[in-house]
Write a structure and sequence with these properties.
The structure is a single chain. The protein has 118 residues and is mostly beta strands. It is built from no helices and eleven strands. Strands 2, 4, 5, 6, 9, 10 and 11 form a seven-stranded mixed beta sheet that branches. Strand 7 and strand 8 form a beta hairpin. It is globular, with a radius of gyration of 13 Å.
Length: 118
């Protein structure tokens, strides 16, 4: 059983940056992903990392968001730059031992709110 806890959300102005963290209870798994859910919308894929050496991002965040990990701290990060109001959402981290892109994921965090003001 793996427990994931997100943190780092908050209020930021458009064009600013924010770094989210996701701490795994035991260890980071092969595949660590980030998703987000805006008000009134479905949960969307943001990006994924395989052992930190392979990453893939949704077109909406490509070039602005970067996933990294610190396995010694059992933590995966989502660095968000050039933030836009459209990025406002609850952000979730997810994990699985399988090599997948957008799913399925076995473990999910509770989410952290990111609000971008214009």
């Amino acid at each position: 059983q793996v427990q994931l806890v997100e943190s780092g959300g908050g209020l930021v102005q458009a064009g600013g940056s924010l770094r989210l963290s996701c701490v795994a209870s035991g260890r980071t798994l092969h595949t660590m992903g980030w998703f987000r859910q805006a008000p009134g919308k479905e949960r969307d894929f943001v990006g994924v990392s395989w052992n930190g050496d392979f990453t893939r991002y949704a077109d909406s965040v490509k070039g602005r968001f970067t996933i990294s990990r610190d396995n010694a701290k059992n933590t995966v990060y989502l660095q968000m730059n050039s933030l836009k109001p459209e990025d406002t959402a609850v952000y979730y981290c997810a994990a699985t031992s399988r090599a997948v892109i957008a799913g399925p994921f076995d473990y999910w965090g509770q989410g952290t709110q990111v609000t971008v003001s214009s």
